[in-house]
Amino acid sequence: MARRWSASSTRWRASRRCQTGCSPSKPAASGGPALPGRPPDCWRASSVGREVRAINDARVVTPDGILEGASIVLEDGRISGITARAERSGEAIDAAGRYVLPGMVDLHCDAIEKQLAPRPGVEVPEELAFMEMDRLFAGCGVTTGFHGVSIMAGRSRGVERGRRLCALVSRLAGEGLVRHELHLRCELPQEESVRAVEEVLGRGFARLVSVMDHTPGQGQFRDLEWFRRYWSGDGADEAQISAALAEAERSEYTIALDRVGRIASAAKKHGATLASHDDDTVERVEVLAGHGVDISEFPVNAASARRARELGHAVCMGAPNALRGVSSGGNLSALEAVEAGLVDALVSDYHPPSMLQAAFKLAREDVLPLPESVALVTGGPARAAGLSDRGGIARGAKADLIIVGGRAGIPTVTHTIVNGESRHAAG
């Protein structure tokens, strides 16, 4: 009789044992998807850096459902097949009934800025900041991470520091445990920012570029009190905040169409996807659509998100927002946007651990089936960035995979595989 692969079963099979005879521990009962606990000792002993030929006894999450007790076969950095029988190979991992997901694709993570400057006025060596971000991505299950680097004057950021971070990511990307990409963030009101982004795009550094306007009184900072709190927390003093508010009062807000056109032209020339940021009106969405925007990240209200999707844009919201259930700035709730069917991708924004947690929360609270919530952090962002070779578990896809168990009811990445090689293992 053929083995039945169920899209709904989450039953923990405590009796399953690995090939060496040890048995995984059973987790405490909880609602939502079952999260197997501590890996067996033989599994935890698998070394980081070795080639992985197969993953056996896996609960494989695909866009169409969950394949119970399946094996994934890997060859030459690609997925070569999914079978119902265990692959007997010395380079196989026994998942012991744990979930296997595609490696997550994070289109917007600006956490490297905090790694570089953990406190206002304090910077650590750039290489250290990059390597710590690399380890964080690997441990969180992000196998393709886009570093959101703001090239903008003022506050803790700066145009020259932005240039340095872009060069850093480009120089060290090949040294990482995971795949590193660059997401350039251009501040439209600043001509200096626009020129610098054009320059970096011309060097072929970036796969993604977003156009932003952080002028107080609109977009993300419609609430001026929130603007004050945000800037103060980012190291700005009262004089800088007052100057920014005074400048905003002197100038009527308009989208700098000539600058958008320049960035759009440079993005197209150098093969980068163009995104908008903090869309706050339907009119803004429509104007930017005329310049070739493909992604709307963090729309601040449902009307803007809905219009973006109608125009074929991929809508990205923050995973921390979805996990917490509320926007930190009082804008659109990502959870409500997902419930309304307005979201194509969740991104880490500033907190990579939130991606996996948000995906499992959406399934646990019956907002979405697990395959659909997982797609928001895997296939959805991959498609938005034009990365057709990853984000799903299918024959021919890149062998970027994560194994997920649980501790204290929290989904935990126990293994990260990139290009068919083990890059992170945790007991």
From TrEMBL:
Gene3D superfamilies: Metal-dependent hydrolases, Urease, subunit C, domain 1. Residues 1-12 have a biased composition (Low complexity). GO terms for molecular function: hydrolase activity, acting on carbon-nitrogen (but not peptide) bonds. Keywords: Hydrolase. Residues 239-421 form the Amidohydrolase domain. It is an enzyme of class 3 (hydrolase). It comes from the Bacteria. One of its GO terms (biological process) is organic phosphonate catabolic process. Signal peptide: none annotated. Residues 1-40 are annotated as: Disordered. Its EC number is 3.6.1.63. NCBIfam families: PRK15446.1-5, PRK15446.2-3, PRK15446.2-6. PANTHER family: ALPHA-D-RIBOSE 1-METHYLPHOSPHONATE 5-TRIPHOSPHATE DIPHOSPHATASE (PTHR43135). This is Alpha-D-ribose 1-methylphosphonate 5-triphosphate diphosphatase. It comes from Rubrobacter tropicus. The lineage of its organism: Bacteria, Bacillati, Actinomycetota, Rubrobacteria, Rubrobacterales.
